[in-house]
Amino acid sequence: MPMEKIPYSLNSRKVAEATWEWLEKRGVKTSEIAELVMLLQKDYYPDLTMEECVHNVEQVLSKREVQNAVLTGIQLDLLAEEGKLIQPLQDMIRYDEGLYGVDEILAFSIVNVYGSIGFTNYGYVDKSKPGVLVRLNDKSDQHIHTFLDDIVGAVAAAASSRIAHRKQAEREAELGDEPVKDAAEEEL
Question: Which residue numbers in the chain have pLDDT < 50?
Answer without folding.
Answer: 187-188
